[in-house]
Design goal:
With 689 residues, the protein is an alpha+beta fold. It has 25 helices and 20 strands. A hairpin with a 3-residue loop joins strand 14 and strand 15. It holds the Pfam family RPC5_C.
């Protein structure tokens, strides 16, 4: 929405004209093997020809044989190998020396609808659509001719003059056979063959052209056609298109070429490259199962953007030891089942995900151990392992590829995201399987003995509390606070309760930030609320450093956003790290207030749907900078209204701090602490959808 406070004004308007005179004749030539500083403009062009349907061009250019960089003996040797010692009109090099070279084109892209040549003149931009974009590369067909001459000479030497010793061959019976009709599958294979494509290309005749140099008069005449010829005509009307239609004109949909379908068990790379990038990556991953990122880039079309490939591959694969493994739901789609046991796809995906998680922890796994945990048939487990591992004698199944440390170092953000995913995956597997870690290391008999031992130890205290409750004595704490009631429940079998793995940052289990249950938090009451119990633990230095660094970067955060960032930080920690174990909401808020931050009491509207944690807004108050005063004035403004205009903020800053407040100061302040919507400014995290 445009407003009077728009900081992005229009500087200049330029008229754009579409020139159509050369629309079906204009080609862009690229020379990828030649530096841009060394053009062919001054090189003599001997001949030029084109096959318009195939957009194939050949140019013959002269070589300066008098240049000090030209090796005369090598040029004579090449001419001798190609043409021999005879002097004929069909010779490639008529002067017995390599004095020319041929350039042959290949198409850079088959769809040029988004490309045009543009010229700017007198405040007007004239654009002409391109018919084709061709890369001109040196042709080495003369080497093929030299090889042919060499083979002819060898055949003549071996054969000799055998006409005098010719012996009449015995007459043999000839069996005539009629070929059977060609099947559709055989015809498709023949059409896809290299020989067939070469034959079709050779059928189109060459159209010979005359080359005009850059400074030639004819070239100047043709360049005038790059400008729109009908400047005042009826065609130059105002564009009356809807935004959707105009966008479709700028970015037309890619038309997929219909190619013959090959056999189902053969993946045609030519056919693959006609698909969208996401489908290319998905098809390759489904076939190879495991692949390094560098190898994947080598299979795609040269010049493909690696960032786009990285976005696509994260949708269909997971990172394991720096290599990409296809996701389980890609191999086992919904409503499918195991061919061995008939188990539904959901169970198969869970079992295969567990195998992938195990390979993130170690190089080798034991098949029997995995089978005992995921409770699937050995055939299904074998399929999982064969996707990503190879069997080793006395070592179980080892991951198929070595760890790709180069990718891990080059893309740390992708690695952190993968660790976050696997941390969530482990929590989910622990919930489903009750306790993966215990099942891996502790037998069922040992767990049963441990459960009985805990039950015996807890029995006296349980009986005492139960008898006190029956007698009405209650369970008052040592400071005279509220009584603690113990519910009479049967003793468990010793298995820990599954963790709550909900990803919601605003409703974490037991009021804990990282989702880990704490005995101290569940048994003790907060003394600040007037109850007795164990005092609240003080924040660790690591927690204070994390909160301080987080607010120095973000400046303004809601409690729910702090929890979300804290969970991401926990997921990035290595397994077994317990520096932030059992952090409660209260301890986290106290740490924020101890880190030179204050809670901003934003007056949310009565109809606001924001949760309680979303309405708790904290902001950094003091950093030691002179800019702290600007932030404090801003926070005071938002304590009176939850949304304000820019001119209100600028006026208040001028009143408090004088005329030294500049536009850059206001821009920095809004960028650090606020977001904009509809011409109004909100503190970060307080804008409701």
């Amino acid at each position: 929405m445009a407003s009077e406070e728009d900081d992005d004004p229009i500087i200049q308007e330029i008229d754009v004209y579409l020139a159509k005179s050369l629309a079906d004749k204009l080609y862009l030539f690229q020379y990828p093997v030649r530096p841009s500083s060394m053009t062919y403009d001054d090189v003599t062009h001997l001949s030029a020809k084109i096959k318009p349907k195939q957009q194939k061009v050949e140019l013959e250019m002269a070589i300066n044989t008098l240049s000090p960089n030209y090796c005369r003996s090598k040029g004579e040797q090449i001419a001798l190998n190609v043409d021999g010692t005879t002097s004929e009109d069909s010779n490639t090099y008529s002067v017995k020396m390599m004095d020319k070279q041929t350039f042959t084109s290949i198409q850079s892209t088959t769809n040029t609808s988004r490309y045009a040549a543009a010229v700017f003149r007198k405040g007007e931009l004239h654009i002409t659509p391109l018919q084709g974009i061709l890369q001109m590369r040196p042709s080495f067909s003369y080497l093929d001719k030299a090889d042919g001459k060499h083979r002819e000479r060898e055949a003549a030497n071996e054969g000799g003059d055998s006409s005098q010793d010719e012996v009449e061959e015995d007459v043999k019976a000839v069996t005539v056979r009629f070929s059977r009709p060609e099947s559709d599958q055989a015809r498709q294979r023949r059409i896809l063959s290299y020989d067939f494509l070469q034959k079709k290309q050779a059928e189109e005749p060459w159209v010979y052209l005359h080359y005009h140099g850059l400074n030639d008069g004819r070239s100047d005449h043709e360049r005038q056609y790059l400008y729109c010829q009908a400047m005042g005509g009826s065609e130059n009307t105002e564009l009356v298109k809807t935004p959707k239609e105009y966008l479709a004109m700028l970015m037309p949909p890619i038309t997929e070429e219909k190619m013959p379908v090959g056999p189902s068990n053969v993946l045609s790379m030519a056919q693959l490259r006609t698909l969208p990038l996401g489908d290319q990556v998905k098809t390759l991953l489904k076939n190879v199962k495991v692949i390094p990122f560098a190898n994947l880039m080598g299979l795609l079309t040269p010049g493909t953007d690696s960032t786009a490939v990285l976005r696509c591959i994260q949708q269909v694969a997971l990172l394991v030891q720096g290599n990409w493994v296809v996701k389980s739901d890609v191999l086992y789609p919904k409503n499918s089942c195991s061919p061995h046991s008939g188990v539904p796809a959901e169970v198969l995906c869970r079992g295969r995900d567990f195998v992938m998680w195990r390979f993130t922890q170690e190089r080798s796994v034991m098949r029997k151990e995995v089978t005992a945990i995921i409770k699937l048939l050995p055939e299904d487990v074998k399929d999982f392992l064969e996707h990503m591992a190879v069997p080793r004698i006395n070592r179980g199944w080892e991951f198929l590829l070595p760890s790709d440390s180069d990718f891990i170092k080059k893309h740390p953000d992708v690695t952190i995201f993968a660790n976050t995913h696997y941390h969530s995956l482990f929590l989910l597997l622990k919930t489903v399987c009750l306790s993966v870690k215990e099942a891996m290391h502790v037998s069922g008999e040992q767990r049963l003995k441990a459960a009985h031992e805990r039950a015996r130890q807890n029995q006296p205290s349980l009986q005492k509390d139960l008898s006190a409750r029956r007698q009405g004595k209650g369970g008052a704490g040592p400071s005279g606070g509220a009584a603690v009631r113990v519910k009479e429940e049967p003793v468990s079998d010793g298995e820990d309760e599954p963790m709550d793995t909900s990803s919601s940052s605003s409703a974490l289990p037991n009021g804990l930030v990282n989702g880990y249950p704490s005995a101290a938090t569940s048994a003790a009451l907060n003394p600040h609320n007037g109850h007795g119990g164990t005092p609240m633990p003080s924040p660790s230095p690591e927690l204070r450093d994390f909160v301080w660094n987080m607010f120095r970067k973000q400046h303004v955060l809601t409690l729910s956003e702090v929890k979300r960032l804290f969970n991401l930080h926990l997921a990035s920690l290595p397994p077994g790290d317990s520096l932030f174990h059992s952090i409660s909401d209260r301890l986290l808020q106290d740490t924020i207030l101890m880190s030179h931050c204050k809670q901003i009491l934003v007056p949310f509207p009565a109809q606001s749907t924001a949760a309680a944690d979303e309405q708790k807004v904290f902001a950094v108050w003091e950093t030691g900078e002179t800019f702290d005063k600007h932030r404090q004035v801003l926070y005071e403004i938002f304590m009176k209204n939850y949304r304000v205009r820019r001119n209100v903020i600028q006026t208040r800053l001028t009143q408090e701090m004088g005329d030294q407040v500049t536009k850059d100061d206001v821009d920095r302040l809004l960028k650090e602490c606020c977001v904009s919507f509809g011409g109004m400014w909100y503190l970060k995290g307080t804008l409701q959808s």
